[in-house]
Write a structure and sequence with these properties.
Elements (H helix, E strand, L loop, with lengths): L1 E7 L6 H14 L5 E4 L13 E2 L6 H6 L7 H14 L1 H8 L6 E5 L5 H4 L3 H11 L2 E10 L6 H18 L3 E6 L6 H11 L3 H10 L4 H5 L1 H14 L4 E3 L5 H15 L3 H4 L16
Parallel strand pairs: 1-4, 1-5, 2-3, 2-4, 5-6, 6-7
């Protein structure tokens, strides 16, 4: 069995930084964690990938091609579809070693995960190659510290979960940049309460939209609270304990190391003592 994290999320949420930190953490704990760059528009990242989609196709090429002439978003979609059509290239780069643990650093175009099929097809390909895959959805914590933003981030995470149909972890990135006051407010969103969320939205000020859709907002908040559909885990990349806790959580989700934990023991048949008969 092989293992993979599909690291996804909006542009600027810290996906590449997360991959770099996790790869370095693997070195520190003497564990091999590799990274694959799947962002054809990436300009810089602080890790050495075992495969880089830009060697196959670059988003700039699709924009400058006289026949294609895509914009940035269309170019990204085309690049992922082109990767799928040339999956042998990726297969050769990945090799076929057992117990591989690979992070796939994905593009920041949210449509790829919420309603298009390209990333879902990529997941199917990885599963055919014997990968246990988990989606890791990063959200910048600074965009989720009030009720309206929390609802928005939660719905985006839920859309990804429904579309990809994978074991799923939501991470709040850039925790180290939050002020103490913002961290206290955030605690209420980590265990969401529908009444608090609704009250927080109302305190943001009157708006015709909030008034008109109050019942819808309340229903969404209640759904999140009652069914625990979406939970966010804080991630502070400056804390080794935080990185270790997140990695352990994801390992459990993708069943990493379960085979190593299973130990069998041979028992010899023992003749019962006379006293036992």
């Amino acid at each position: 069995m092989r293992y993979a994290q599909l690291v996804i999320g909006p542009a600027g949420c810290g996906k590449s930084t997360y991959c770099s930190a996790l790869a370095q953490h693997g070195v520190d704990i003497k564990r091999n964690i590799e990274v694959v760059n799947l962002d054809p528009a990436a300009e810089y990242f602080n890790y050495t990938p075992i495969a880089d989609i830009r060697e196959l196709i670059n988003v700039q090429d699709t924009m400058e091609d006289e026949e294609l002439h895509f914009g940035p978003n269309g170019g990204l979609v085309f690049c992922i579809e082109y990767l799928l059509e040339n999956s042998d290239w990726l297969h050769d780069k990945l090799g076929d070693l057992e117990d591989d643990y690979i992070l796939f650093d994905c593009p920041g175009q949210i449509e790829l995960y919420t309603h298009l099929t390209a990333m879902k097809n990529l997941v199917k390909q990885l599963q055919d190659w014997n990968f246990n895959v988990c989606s890791v959805f990063l959200v910048d914590v600074q965009y989720i510290t009030d009720g309206t933003k929390f609802i928005s981030g939660t719905m985006a995470a839920l859309s990804v979960m429904v579309n990809l149909e994978l074991p799923h972890i939501n991470l709040l990135s850039k925790m180290d940049l939050l002020s103490k006051g913002a961290k206290k407010r955030l605690d209420r969103f980590l265990e969401p309460d529908s009444h608090f969320i609704l009250g927080d939205i109302e305190t943001c000020g009157y708006s015709a939209f909030n008034t008109k859709h109050r019942k819808l907002t309340e229903a969404i908040g209640k759904l999140i609270e009652d069914y625990s559909l979406v939970r966010f885990i804080p991630l502070n990349l400056k804390s080794l304990e935080s990185i270790g806790d997140v990695l352990l959580t994801i390992d459990n989700v993708i069943q990493f190391g379960e085979d190593q934990d299973v130990k069998t023991k041979d028992f010899e048949e023992v003749e019962p003592d006379d006293e036992d008969t």
